[in-house]
Amino acid sequence: MTPHTAELTVTGYANGGAGVAHDADGRVVFVAGALPGERVLARFDEQRTSYARAHTAAVLEASPERVHPLCPAAAAGAGCCDLAYTGAGYAAQLRAGALADVLERIGRLGPQAPQPPAVTALGPEPTGWRVRTRLAVGDDGAPGLRVRGSSRIVTEPCAGPVSGLLDGLGDLGAVAAGDLVVAVGSDGARHVVELAPVPGGGRGRGAAQRSRSRRSRPRAERLIEGRALVTQQLGGHTWQLPVTGFWQAHREAPATYAATVRDFAGRAGGLRAGMRVWDLYGGAGILGAALLDGGGQVPPVGAVDLVETDPGALAAADAALTADPVHLHRGDVAGVIAGLPAPDLVIADPPRRGAGGEVIAAIAAAGPRAVVHVGCDAGAFARDLRDYVSRGFRVTDWRAFDAFPLTHHVEAIALLESP
Ligand SMILES: C[S@@+](CC[C@H](N)C(=O)[O-])C[C@H]1O[C@@H](n2cnc3c(N)ncnc32)[C@H](O)[C@@H]1O
After folding, report:
1. Do residues 246 and 274 share a domain?
2. Mean pLDDT across the chain
3. pLDDT of residue 1 exceeding 60
4. 11: containing domain
5. ipTM for the assembly
6. Which of 244, 309, 353, 371 to mutate to test the pocket of ligand 1 (most atoms within 8 A of CB)?
7. Atom 14 (ligand 1): residue with closest C-alpha?
8. Which residues of this UniProt protein bind S-adenosyl-L-methionine (predicted)?
9. Domain contains 71
């Protein structure tokens, strides 16, 4: 019978946030919560022929880089800050190494690619950066964070949220077993929406997985603090976004990504005054709008086609960008872009799974001079870059940001140019 635990020596760190070890048969084991150089007691969560996944049940020999977790919720077992148990400098090294590894192994971009990017911090501290979060509400009405792979909730605070984001949430009368979405706008106002409990929630690991997929379905919403729309200001524009709609989690992320898009668009070859821009997976249009604000070397924009599925984000874009040459297209990028006028520049900021080969083939077929591609999952980002490169694009620059401090996640942005 396969053992449930094993003592393992961790030799590396992989994208996805786990230590890499090998079991007695030489099989790779990804061990969550373990650092390179450590000897740990690993408890298996998933066993496959070619690899296994486990988590650290006990650290037997600790790395000198291990610290007491900076995040109280993570220390209590929550899945929020999965890299909170090492210092900022070593965490940055681990993230940069994992990104470089994935770009080489999955991206296979060859010698034409620039040196892998360093992972740049967005602020001086790895705590107090998050302007929106989602919490689970326990049976006793107390909000907290779920322990990974379990329906258990811990009420210790996460270190990520900006000051005040979590204050007094337990006093708002949230319904037991629901969820709370909490967001603070650039005006400092906090807004809280309650999502109704998931029918048939249940307990235990299986129940946690079932309820995770049920929780992603649309649920009844009730505003319990603030207003239904959050004010977000960036550059010369102000957006009013639904509390449950998308906005970058790190308070410095919108301005940093906007500046990067502007910088890349200013340096890409072959762009002309009056250029047409596709802002794909555009949300409320902050990245396309960054080019409308002028400045730098960016040629004047003739038109922006914003493609997005979320009607709330499009309504926010409509109100914020009325005076600008922005055309809104509601629908799936894969279906919509075939009917759009050809672009000079494409900005693509897909969700975690990436844009995928079909969308990238359609972008390439439309013949843009340049693409600014954004990714929040290193593996999907590398796959997407490989698809552009296989269609003749060259990666001419890229940046990576520590946009989710105390976690393994990175946000990366690449400039790709056609020959
Ligand atoms: C990572 S967010 C980026 C939003 C925006 N660029 C920003 O920075 O605020 C991805 C966006 O893509 C939208 N989306 C997801 N799948 C989509 C699809 N297949 N077609 C169009 N939009 C999609 C989501 O609603 C979300 O607003």
Report:
1. yes
2. 93
3. no
4. 5-66
5. 0.99
6. 309
7. 281
8. 248, 281, 305, 349
9. no
* Residue 122 pLDDT > 50: yes
Residues 139 and 236 in one domain: no
Domains held by the chain: number: 3
User: Sign (positive/negative) of CA torsion 41, 45, 46, 51?
Assistant: negative
> Treating both helix axes as pointing N-terminal to C-terminal, what angle do 88-102 and 378-390 enclose, rounded to 10 degrees?
30
CA of 282 to the centre of ligand 1 (A): 5
Same-domain check for residues 321 and 347:
yes
Q: What pLDDT was estimated at residue 203? A: 47
The verdict on residue 169 lying in a domain is: yes
Q: Which residues pair with 192 in a beta bridge?
A: 182, 225
User: What's the whole-model pTM score?
Assistant: 0.93
Residues 265 and 393 in one domain: yes
- Closest alpha carbon to 388 in 369, 403, 405: 369
Same domain, 170 and 222: yes
Inside any domain, residue 81: no
161 and 133 Cβ atoms separated by less than 8 Å: yes
CA pair distance 212, 198, nearest whole angstrom: 9
Q: Is the CB of 377 under 6 A from ligand 1?
A: no
